[in-house]
Amino acid sequence: MRPALRLLTDELIERIVAEARDILCQLGVEIHNEAVLGMLGDHGATVDRGGRHAHLTQGIIDKALASVPHSFQLYDVLGNQTHDFAGGSVYFTPGSAAVNILDNATGEMRQPTTADYIRYVQLTSGLKHIAAQSTAFIPADVDARISDSYRLYLSLLHGEKPVVTGAFSVEGFEIMKDLQLAVRGDAAALRAKPLTIFSCCPTAPIKWSDVTSQNLIDCARWGIPAELISMPLSGFIAPVTLVGSLIQQTAENLSGVVISQIASAGHPLLYGGSPAIFDVRYETTPMGAIETMMLNCANSEIGKYLGMPTQGYIAISDAKRLDAQAGLETGMGSTLAALSGINSVSGPGMLDFESCQSLEKLVVDNEICGMSYRLLKGIEPREDFPAIALFQELLSERNLLIADHTRRHLREEIGFPGPVIDRSNRTRWQKEGKLTLRQRAAKEVARLIGQSKPSRLPQAAQAELTRLMESEARRCGMDALPGAGI
User: Fold this and answer.
1) Sorting pLDDT into bands at 50, 70 and 90, what band is 303?
2) Helix, strand or coil for residue 273?
């Protein structure tokens, strides 16, 4: 039996959804994009262009929910399927868009570079329990205007796993779409085998900016999957109660579903979010708070009730170092996300309120994700009944280390973590140098990067990626791209 977590009853979900729908119909959604407002008006919404508001109808919402896919697949750069966002499947992805990296040599946060990003891609390629890359942090050695496309470029050039990404400008989407076409070959192939998911984020409370709403309809028209990342802050720009925040998050996400499906019926979406409570003592948005985790898990229940695959920013820590707090918050978040069946879990590697990535934490989090996967397998009998013969052997031999039953089931029954997790006895630990968690993690980072292999993407596609990126860099006034490892 697979273990599962439920925080909401069906009755409560229905009441939350009903309230969110009423808000969209009576109070409306604020949209700062004329084309989107016009599109909604053409489909029956009452539009106030001066106030930049659209009042939806129950019929518009019903039609959008009827056309949004219940599942979809994701593929790597070579065209192999890696994800099936259906049912209770769970996939882990590093957190995205950090502005800092934790430098293991100094123990301090700093701005990342191209060389850091390439090391991240190489590391992620070797992490068994991390199914996708993300555009994890922002290299500071390129013009900010190309930072979105540049991260995607590096991910596609140096790695093979699919990428969770996003554009922070209308212009940025075009080059990022072209980079994907360079990998797939043409629009039909990209639509058939998508290799990215774009984060599209409404602004609290219940608003879409010009850029994010345009990104959403551009993704819909090109068949590029999107994840709706609603970000209510409980007690600040959302009701302080968790139910109140969930009503707001549902309204914001439902408005995104409508925009997406009107632009292109059948556009694949993840119903997701990055909610948080607001800690009034420090004026911070703790991603490691239990209430934040509860919001993510409950939001996923609502998304699944609406018939959509789900996403959540969870398995994150607000700690500033790879310490006990980092393990506590990430471990609890990963476990709750897995038990809730959140299909796409964004967060491993992240520290400091989603602002910092740590490669050392990422390898530790990979082990946490592996433990979560083992939990999801649950407990089931494996030739355990009848038990008499097995216990006769145990009583006779006094152990079952080399028993046939042990050899048949050892690997599927017991998970063995990598060297980051210390399970040796004290004597052996001392003999091997008394390494701390940080030292073991750094050693594993170096090992995995050292054994990474170049991407098998055809050379012609790699050359086209570089041509496109160099052209975009020149457009923004850069004579050349940073040379580290490229």
Assistant:
1) very high
2) strand
Q: What is the largest CA-CA distance in the chain?
A: 85
Q: Do 146 and 473 touch, CB atoms closer than 8 A?
A: yes
Q: Tell me what percent of the chain is helix, strand and coil, each rounded to the nearest 5.
A: 45, 15, 40
Instruction: Identify each DSSP E strand in 173-299 by its residue range.
Output: 196-200, 207-208, 226-230, 233-234, 269-273, 276-277
Q: What is the pLDDT of residues 168-198, one digit of tens each?
A: 888 899 999 999 999 999 999 999 999 999 9
Name the 3-class secondary structure at 384.
coil
> How far apart, in whole angstroms, are the C-alpha atoms of residue 447 and residue 263?
46
Average pLDDT on 346-365 reads 98
Yes or no: say if 289 and 325 are a contact pair by the CB < 8 Å rule: no
Both structure tokens of 167? 């554009």
Q: Give the amino acid at 242.
A: L
End-to-end CA distance of the chain: 48
Task: Note whether 276 and 231 are within 8 A (CB).
Answer: yes
Q: Could you tell me if 270 and 225 are in contact, meaning their C-beta atoms sit under 8 angstroms apart?
A: yes
Phi then psi dihedrals of residue 471, to 5 deg: -65, -40
For the segment(s) 66-377, the CATH number from 3.40.50.1950, 3.40.50.300, 3.20.20.480, 3.10.180.10 is: 3.20.20.480
Cβ neighbour number for residue 359 with a 10 Å cutoff: 26
Give the residue-averaged pLDDT of 379-392.
Answer: 97
Q: What DSSP state is assigned to residue 422?
A: -
Residues whose CB falls within 8 Å of the CB of residue 323, separated by 6 or more in sequence, listed in order: none
Domain boundaries, the chain: 66-377
Alpha-carbon Rg of the chain, whole angstroms? Answer: 24
Structure tokens at 260: 């997406």
pLDDT greater than 60 at residue 484: no
pTM: 0.97
Is the CA virtual torsion 426, 428, 434, 439 positive or negative?
negative
Cis before 69 (ω within 30): no
Kind plus residue range of the DSSP H or E element containing 165: strand 163-165
User: What count of residues does the chain have?
Assistant: 486
Phi, psi of 76 (to 5 degrees): -85, 180
Q: How far is the C-alpha of 193 from the C-alpha of 176, rounded, in Å?
A: 16
Instruction: Give me the percent of the chain exceeding a pLDDT of 70.
Output: 99
Q: Annotate 4-26 with b (16+ C-beta within 10 A) or e (fewer).
A: ebebbeeeebeebbebbbebbbe
Write out the two tokens for 388: 């008499």
